[in-house]
Request: fold
Amino acid sequence: MGIFDFLFNKVLVYTAVGDEQYFKTAQSFQSEGLRYKVKSNSGNRPALGQHYINDTSTTAIYDFYVNKEDQHKAHNILSKIRSS
Reply:
């Protein structure tokens, strides 16, 4: 358990790779009224999208965290996303 998880009583429910997955997941969570936090593992990026360092493109990675009591709801929403 990382300090982020401990401080905010959150659990990691999904890791989105790239902006398309991020927006799809965020929109689904919001439309279902699920509160979440996102931690970006993409370094010091000024904005969404791809970031170029030394002519190398890196894809953003986003970790979605929810309250422990909302974990089951989050997994149900993610199942709907995968089946659509």
User: Anything to note?
Assistant: The chain has a mean pLDDT of 83.
